[in-house]
């Protein structure tokens, strides 16, 4: 189930990925911080890294990916204009999937 798709900005990469407000009703309810075991894939479905844990926390009234997200964004070479789609997909390794589409890819 798709939770959200977002075109990244420089702020998303540098300060944490702020989740679109419309996605909050599709994400489990929480207060404070939760850890999301996530598989990260390219648009072609190739796994970029093993399952990672992304911390999702409330910040200034927004929900954002923070710890774990920064290293993931850096290691994957994410840039402003790339698009990420976040899914809930229960399987043996992780509960979530984050799929990347780079600016130059079709």
UniProtKB/TrEMBL annotation:
Protein source organism: Salix dunnii
Protein name from the UniProt record: TF-B3 domain-containing protein
GO cellular component, one term: nucleus
One MF term in the entry's GO annotations: DNA binding
Sections of the chain in a coiled coil: none
Lineage: Eukaryota, Viridiplantae, Streptophyta, Embryophyta, Tracheophyta
Domain of life, source organism: Eukaryota
Keywords, alphabetical: DNA-binding, Nucleus, Transcription, Transcription regulation
Compartment(s) where it occurs, according to its Swiss-Prot or TrEMBL record: Nucleus
């Amino acid at each position: 189930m798709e939770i959200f798709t977002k075109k990244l900005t420089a702020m998303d990469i540098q300060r944490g990925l702020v989740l679109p407000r419309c996605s909050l009703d599709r994400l489990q309810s929480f207060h404070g911080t939760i850890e999301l075991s996530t598989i990260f894939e390219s648009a072609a479905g190739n796994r970029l890294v093993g399952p990672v844990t992304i911390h999702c926390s409330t910040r200034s009234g927004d929900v954002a990916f923070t710890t774990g997200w920064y290293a993931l964004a850096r290691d994957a070479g994410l840039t402003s204009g790339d698009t990420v789609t976040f899914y809930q997909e229960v399987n043996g390794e992780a509960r979530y999937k984050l799929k990347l589409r780079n600016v130059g890819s079709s």
